[in-house]
Amino acid sequence: MIRVGQGYDVHQLREGLDMWLCGVKVPSSVGFVAHSDGDVAIHALCDALLGALALGDIGHLFPDTSDEFKGIDSKILLRRVVELVRSKGWDIVNADITIALQAPKIAWLVPAMRECLAEVMGVAADAVSVKATTTERLGFVGRGEGCEVWAVALVESR
Ligand code: MG
User: How many angstroms separate the CA atoms of 21 and 76, rounded?
Assistant: First the structure.
């Protein structure tokens, strides 16, 4: 049996904060406002994996009211989600992520992002797709106020 899930997340951008995307630190003068490290791409991916098995969402699993998750490396959250998926008898087939960000340009970091996510999820790099786009200066993404990410994940029963 196979199942599919989708995830979506948005984080606000602010001057002087770190920018983590897909587990990679992006050189940038702006970064994400968040309770965790703000890796909006990993958050969307976690929600896609959880969604595939109707296991809720990361806000439910890792509440932002908990000190345990304050400033946490989102790769740890992803690892926990993957462990949960595997513990239920499912394996990850592939994931596809689209990041909408006006600036900075991140296309050059896509290979590193794919490698990083593949390693954390224990899958081959060619099972992980990361795509970067702008919104042609339209909307909150285009004004540089935030970053928006969509993710889809497919899982198969063992
Ligand atoms: Mg988030």
Answer: 14
Q: What are phi and psi of 80, to 5 degrees?
A: -65, -40
Whether the CB-CB separation of 24 and 37 falls below 8 Å is answered with no
List beta partners, residue 151: 7, 97
Residue 63 alpha carbon to ligand 1 centre in Å: 11
Per-residue pLDDT reduced to its tens digit, 21-45 = 999 999 999 999 998 999 999 999 9
Could you report the per-residue pLDDT of 102-144, keeping only the tens digit for each? 999 999 999 999 999 999 999 999 999 999 999 999 999 999 9
* Tokens found for residue 28: 């940038």
Q: How far is the CA of 44 from the centre of ligand 1 (A)?
A: 7
Distance 146 CA to ligand 1 centre (A): 12
CA atoms within 13 A on the CB side of 112: 10
